[in-house]
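$ run holo --ligand "tetrahydrodeoxyuridine" --emit tokens
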Amino acid sequence: MSADRDALIVAAREASEAAYAPHSRFRVGAALRFVDGAVVTGSNVENASYGLSLCAETVAVAKAFNEGRRGGLVAVAVTADGNEVVTPCGRCRQVLHELADLGRTDPLIYCCGPGEVREMRLSELLPEAFGPGSLG
Ligand code: THU
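-- output --
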């Protein structure tokens, strides 16, 4: 396991501690690493109107955009409470794709479980993606 990968997973786990998840009690953390070495994190933010809840990955991507980032996404770690490996939901895959596509990268996604990390490219999780270029 590489030091970079370890550090990103630790950042995601630490971020999950700030989750606001009183409804599901399922805290999720996401950490995005950029080509310049910067790391941007997020955690899920739930709402009493459940469908309005924000996922950890989406929060992290929104933070990155608001810091002025437009591409350069090289790796993502996702961690969660529970006993299974967690993979980004469909909406988060699309949200991650927008940021990655701006810099023409295909980030590695570290999907973490209690004793296991599954590594996948975003393009494997979201093949034939719709993106900025699809608008013509
Ligand atoms: N959740 C995430 O933060 N990311 C995902 O990719 C999947 C689900 C959150 C949303 C909700 O707050 C909780 O996990 C249970 O679905």
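-- notes --
The helical segments are 3-16, 56-66, 90-102, 122-125.
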